Amino acid sequence: MFDFDDLERAIEAKVCEAPAVVRAKVKPHIKNNHTKVVRIWAISDLHTDDHHNKEWLDELETKGAANDVLIVAGDISHKWDIIKDTLSFLKARYARVFYCPGNHELWGNAQEDSMRRFHAILQLCQQLGVETAPAEVAVGDRRVLIVPIMSWHHPQWDMEPEIQGWRGLLPVDQMLSDYPLTHWPEGICIQDGSAALAIDKVNDELVDWIDLLQRRHEYQEVLSFSHFLPKVENNPEKRYLTYPNLAKGIGSDYLRRRVEELRPNLHVFGHTHFGYDLEVEGIRYVQAPLSMRGNSSSERHSRGTTVALGDFPDGLPFSHPFMAGKLRDGLGTARAQGVAFAQRLGTKEPGQGAWSAYVERYGRRPDVTPGEPRWISDFSPRPQDAARIQRQMVKNYRKI
Ligand SMILES: [Fe+2]
Ligand SMILES: [Fe+2]
């Protein structure tokens, strides 16, 4: 069984020995900024290197957003110019923009160190006025604390039983692009959780975490966000996934621990491109991904009902797929794929999200591990596909 403390002890030294990155000399405290904001929006997985998504962003109605806050929960692009342009575009339209890098932002060539790249992105954000550290916003007369949590995935996060009768499903390191396309300092890798720990430690450079926890009670509401998943409950059960090993490349125990310590009213995440809105142990978890492009081969087309949060999709093709922006009783509804949290973060009527609605209705039974379901045997890649998939990952990365 995976022992969180053992892992931490075992790899702590490796992380500390890693080449120096940009480190704060003094742990900063929470920034106060009493700009009055009207609404807080959240979205993930903008993937604006896809021109369909870029066009969607260009058309986004932001006239009434000058006093709003936008949270972007990772995955803009792996291209520097696109990350910069997208964040600049958003910063020009919203009063405040909060952001954490996703996995795509760390993709690079073999000579690029992913840790250095991570810190370079944080520096870019600083130059652009995009916020990556915990900070206060004032919504009406209420103090709201927004807490970005930096994270990376590790396979040990998945502790749920495997489905039975697997016939050679590809292991996660042969299936996820993050393995060939990220490059870590010596001694750090994704597989043993040391990359997840190294990124988690960045949080302690961004804020005095203990101080933040001690001041948690001063805020009427707390909203945290990350790119990856804190809880296994944020993911559909393995038997429903076409690639059950997905669970080994999406979450972080370090992130889970921070969220459980902080106990936000609401935590926004991204990465899996499943629209989600589900309360787990008193914390509401939401994912509102823009996801991939709107042509016939895209996931917005083929997986529309699971990508969507709320009423999306209301028809194909998606000329202007999200952001209907309808408000009800002063609260943002989940119609918009960017979800608005306006009055009380914890009490907004939940959006749908196919899988979170399913869990709400039927519960979660990870102990049910049937023989390999048909949709897995039909669609999941096999060992004989490994070399082709690896080649395709690198090819796609170079092409985008
Ligand atoms: Fe994504
Ligand atoms: Fe992602």
Q: Look at the helices and sheets and give the structural class.
A: alpha/beta
- DSSP, total strands: 13
Succession of helices and strands: HEEHEHEHEEHHHHEHEEEHHEEEHHH
What is the 3D shape?
A: globular
The percent range for strand residues is 5-15%
CATH class: Alpha Beta
Pfam families: Metallophos
Keywords: Dioxygenase, Oxidoreductase
Protein name: Fe2OG dioxygenase domain-containing protein
Organism: Cladocopium goreaui
What keywords describe this structure?
globular, hydrolase activity, Pantetheine_PDE, 13% strand, binds fe (ii) ion, Purple Acid Phosphatase, chain A, domain 2
How would you describe the overall organization of this protein?
The chain has one domain: Metallo-dependent phosphatases (Purple Acid Phosphatase, chain A, domain 2), CATH 3.60.21. The protein has 400 residues and is of the alpha/beta class. The two termini are 40 Å apart. It has helices at residues 4-17, 51-59, 80-91, 114-128, 172-175, 178-181, 194-206, 209-214, 253-262, 299-302, 304-307, 354-362, 374-379, 386-399; strands at residues 36-37, 40-43, 69-72, 96-99, 135-139, 142-148, 221-225, 266-269, 276-280, 283-287, 327-328, 331-332, 339-341. Helices cover 31% and strands 13% of the residues. One fe (ii) ion (FE2) binds at residues 75, 102-104, 227, 271. It comes from Cladocopium goreaui.
